[in-house]
């Protein structure tokens, strides 16, 4: 029986209550109604509206606290007046009334710029950018109106309200985001996604979405060209709900509110448009998910041409300006940081020297930007003859991956070295590499020449950037990562570099160093 016949048989069981009880269709959710009647529609989960209302209430409470707090801090509890110099027919307005109007306008500006829209919440910095933009735009408009209307508004009150309001609003949104991520990790407050496309593309997108649940997409089913109900997508637990002609019935069965088209090669002409026509406006959504992974938003541009939405992906490159900015940040932070922690570095050097025989520093040849080799510095954390012991230990490897050798309890590591590695203290001498220019504070992992010999052609793209003391690979699992995952993270960093991302990685590194989770070996 074909997949279409299977779904048709499933629909026919609704006409016979006995058959419906005896032969339920796997993966199909049916809410019983009256005998012989169609299934009762399941009430959609309005989590987007609930979350937006909560944001609205908390935004209002924050602005009330900020605006009236700034007014009291600047004027006290008295009844200060906004002076109207131009039109004597308008009496001066109390700042209590002005503050109320300011709060209402601020709330209106946050809503007008869609800062509570479901498309910007939960991931990325778009939500924070919109909050900041709405706030600056509002206060800029107030300043212009006050100048043109010759209204004397206390500049100190506005200067205090604007930055304080932005900071507290962003912090409040960040707290809500942490709550939302926690909810999404258990499958709540997420879009219910039905994937449509080839088995390969559906499998790829399903794995990515299941790996990153915090993005808010919960895959509930898939429709593939040759799909059979009750089958699952390879490597996942996603059930197949039928072929690509069964999308509407699959939406009803899975209660999906989002259809993600992962590929169009195997779809009939105009199928994507037919799917979009069948969706309920405002409640169900269509997403086109091209199989382009690890490409950040700034590199992607959509340009419609005669009704055809063309997706342009810019070629990754480091401009001269970006290199200057990154080098300036490296020199500034490494220089200041090196001076501040120099007493601690001397203490560590002394402990390494007296704890075991051998040099304090360990120099190792690594491969840097453009494939050039350099000597990387570390505090010695192993016995002197560690390299000669490596071949005998390969059979006992229980961490790392097929290219990177790691052991959970490496016998070559000294007791002091084990402590330093746990908190990444052995990496601190690499500050000298950063100052000399062979490394950066943040970048791809610096590989050994022997590791580079095993690289596939595409992996060499990591040499577009200087290697880093820390990087996306380090704050995402380190030794617990597979080789493919390590490469993916490094390439993702190189191709999507930004100064903000560097600061985020540095903050995550500090947190990981203070509270390690057992992945540093």
From TrEMBL:
Residue stretches spanning the membrane: 55-75, 95-113, 134-151, 157-176, 331-352
Region listing for Disordered, in residue ranges: 21-43
Domain (Bacterial sugar transferase): residue spans on this chain: 326-514
Keyword check for Transferase: yes
Membrane topology reported for the UniProt record: Multi-pass membrane protein
Main location: membrane
Record keywords, A-Z: Membrane, Transferase, Transmembrane, Transmembrane helix
Highest taxon of source: Bacteria
Cellular localization per UniProt: Membrane
Alphabetical list of InterPro entries matching this protein: Bact_transf, EPS_sugar_tfrase
Record-stated family: Belongs to the bacterial sugar transferase family.
PANTHER family: COLANIC BIOSYNTHESIS UDP-GLUCOSE LIPID CARRIER TRANSFERASE, SLL5057 PROTEIN
Full protein name: Polyprenyl glycosylphosphotransferase
Organism: Microbacterium terricola
């Amino acid at each position: 029986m074909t997949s279409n016949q299977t779904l048709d048989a499933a629909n026919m069981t609704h006409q016979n209550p006995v058959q419906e009880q005896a032969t339920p269709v796997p993966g199909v959710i049916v809410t019983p109604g009256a005998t012989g009647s169609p299934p009762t529609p399941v009430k959609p989960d309005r989590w987007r509206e609930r979350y937006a209302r909560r944001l609205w209430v908390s935004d209002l409470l924050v602005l009330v606290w900020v605006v009236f707090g700034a007014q009291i801090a600047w004027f006290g509890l008295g009844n200060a007046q906004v002076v109207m110099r131009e039109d004597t027919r308008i009496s001066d307005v109390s700042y209590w009334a002005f503050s109320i109007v300011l709060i209402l306008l601020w709330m209106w500006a946050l809503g007008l710029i869609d800062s509570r829209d479901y498309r910007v919440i939960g991931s990325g910095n778009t939500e924070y950018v919109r909050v900041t933009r709405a706030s600056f735009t509002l206060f800029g408009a107030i300043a212009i109106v006050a100048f043109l209307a010759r209204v004397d508004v206390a500049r100190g009150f506005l200067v205090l309200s604007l930055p304080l309001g932005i900071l507290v609003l962003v912090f409040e949104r960040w707290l809500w985001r942490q709550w939302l991520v926690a909810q999404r990790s258990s499958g709540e407050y997420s879009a219910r996604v039905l994937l449509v496309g080839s088995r390969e593309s559906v499998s790829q997108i399903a794995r990515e979405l299941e790996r990153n649940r915090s993005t808010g997409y919960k895959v509930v089913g898939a429709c593939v060209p040759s799909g059979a109900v009750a089958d699952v997508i390879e490597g996942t637990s996603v059930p197949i709900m039928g072929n690509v002609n069964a999308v509407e019935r699959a939406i009803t069965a899975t209660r999906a509110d989002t259809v993600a088209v992962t590929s169009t090669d195997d779809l009939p002409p105009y199928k994507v448009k037919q799917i979009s026509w069948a969706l309920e406006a405002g409640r169900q959504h269509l997403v086109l998910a091209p199989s382009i992974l690890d490409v950040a938003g700034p590199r992607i541009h959509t340009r419609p041409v005669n009704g055809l939405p063309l997706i342009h992906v810019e070629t990754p490159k480091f401009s001269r300006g970006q290199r200057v900015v990154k080098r300036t940040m490296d020199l500034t932070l490494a220089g200041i940081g090196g001076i501040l922690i120099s007493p601690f570095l001397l203490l560590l050097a002394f402990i390494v020297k007296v704890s075991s025989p051998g040099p304090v520093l360990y120099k190792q040849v690594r491969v840097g930007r453009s494939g050039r080799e350099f000597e990387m510095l570390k505090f010695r954390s192993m016995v002197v003859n560690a390299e000669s012991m490596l071949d005998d230990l390969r059979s006992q490897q229980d961490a790392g991956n097929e290219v990177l050798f790691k052991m959970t309890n490496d016998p070559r590591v000294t007791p002091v070295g084990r402590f330093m590695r746990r908190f990444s203290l052995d990496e601190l001498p690499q500050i000298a590499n950063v100052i000399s220019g062979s490394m950066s504070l943040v970048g791809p992992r610096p590989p050994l020449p022997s590791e580079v010999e095993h690289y596939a052609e595409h992996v060499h793209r990591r040499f577009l950037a200087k290697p880093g003391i820390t990087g996306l690979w380090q704050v995402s699992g380190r030794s617990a990562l597979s080789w493919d995952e390590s490469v993916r993270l490094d390439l993702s960093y190189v191709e999507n570099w930004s100064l903000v991302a560097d600061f985020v990685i540095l903050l995550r590194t500090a947190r990981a160093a203070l509270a390690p989770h057992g992945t540093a070996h």
